[in-house]
Each structure stands twice: as structure tokens, then as C-alpha cells.
Amino acid sequence: MTNLAQLQQLFTIYQTPPFPADSIPVTVDGQVVAIANTGLTNRERALVATLQPAPAPTAPWPRFLLGQGPAPSTDPVRLIHFTTTIAQTGGDPETWLEAFTSLFAGPVSGFFATTNRGAIVEPAGELLIDRSDLAGMLDTLDGDFDTSTRAYIGRSWPTDADLPAMYAEEVQLAAGNTARISTLQESALAYYTQEARRHSRILLALRRLLRGSTSDMAPVITALYHNQGNLTATAKALYLHRNTLQYRIEKFQQRTGFALKNMDDLVLCYLLLQGE
């Protein structure tokens, strides 16, 4: 199966809408991209023709967000991106989407961009749902439709010419998350440092140091980070005695030189774990 990395070796790829008018939209790795049409050979055109075509939306919001139509509104909105298994279970995506949108207190719009991924367009205002409300919605949906659904809660943005690019970037942020519900704050560190982590010799060496020093510290580092370095809260989250946690942290410092009680050291160690 052709993936985005393979396509980028063969063609000029546009990943952020609006796409050039003469480009060829396709859906690859669950993402709508476009291939530059200029200079393609007959063989290359045949290859492009075999790819799954991007959906041709008719509703106003997906048309706008995919760079294919005007803005349906001038009011700020928030996007809630979802990935669901409704297509794999044999259910009806439109029925599933209608059920999802009906759970919101106010009027929202929803659409599928691919067979398993889409977004809810929520007017920005006082009625924005919170994380716990969304978790309850997903519980209801997955229980009723026998699906597995993840969501990424975007930030509120103005509805202007920049929103399609914001949408495309949020799609990428959402795609990199495996948590049931995620946000920009939780995703930013891993997403925006991925190139540096991939190519930095220093970070690669430090990652090997962490990996070779001890294999049981990843949950400790993650829990410490999420609890802002609070040992008592971290010990409770890990079902450990506080003295046991203290001992592990001290042994880790002896092996690596990283003092996890220091926030700078803790953040760096957490960063090194991203992508592991």
C-alpha cells in the first residue's frame, strides 16, 4: 500500500489546503493531500489514478476546511477531530455522526473527511463541552454502535482564511495521538519536536542512555511529568509506596545523571520518551 512517505519520494505533495487548482487531491494515510499535476508522465498519472480519491464534500464546512469552498460563517469555531471504527464494524457512518452531533447541547456541524476520520465544528462560546462531557459522549457512542473512538479537542479559532491550514495542522496533531482524548497542550511537545528528536545525535544518544539504564522508569517519568513532579501524587498514581518511588528516582539519577526532582531534567527525560 502506498503511504505518504513513499509519495513524497515520487511527487511534489501539498499537505495544507487550499490546494492549487490544477493539483490532484488524494487520501493517503487517512490524510487529504494533493499531488502536483505539472510534468507527470503517463505512468505516473496511472499510479496516481490507482490511489483512493479524496472525498468530494458537498456540505459547506468540509468544503471550506478542505480548501474547496467559501467560509460558511464568520464566527469563531472549535474543531473536535475524531477517529472511529464505524466503517470497520459495518455500521452506517451517517447514522453514527447524527447520533454524535445530537449529544451536543447546542447546534454543531459534523463531517467525515475519510472513512474513519472527521470533525465536529462547534461554535466557540459558553456552551463548549469539556473533556469529561466528551468522554461521556464517546462512552455512549461506542456503547450504542460497538465502535472504538478517539478524539482531539482543538482550540477556538477565527473563521478566516487561515482556518483551513489550522484544520490541516490539527489533523496531524490528532493523528499522532493514541490517547482516547487529547489536546494541543498534551500533543505539542511531542509533535513540534519530532524532527529534532529524529535527527539530533545528542537526543538519540540520551535516548539510548535512558533505554539502557532501566526499562521500568518510563511509567515513572510519565507519571511525574503529568503530576508536575509531585512525588505523593505520582506514587498514588503508580500504586507505589512513596519511599519506593524515592529510591527508584535516586537510582535513576546515579545511572543517568538526571535528577527527576528538577523540572528541567524531568521535562527533558519526558521529551526523550516521546515516540518510543
From TrEMBL:
Pfam families reported in the protein's UniProt record: HTH_30
Record domain PucR C-terminal helix-turn-helix: where: 222-273
UniProt xrefs under InterPro entries: CdaR-like_regulators, Homeodomain-like_sf, PucR_C-HTH_dom, PucR_C-HTH_sf
Protein name: Regulator
Species annotation: Lacticaseibacillus nasuensis JCM 17158
Organism lineage: Bacteria, Bacillati, Bacillota, Bacilli, Lactobacillales
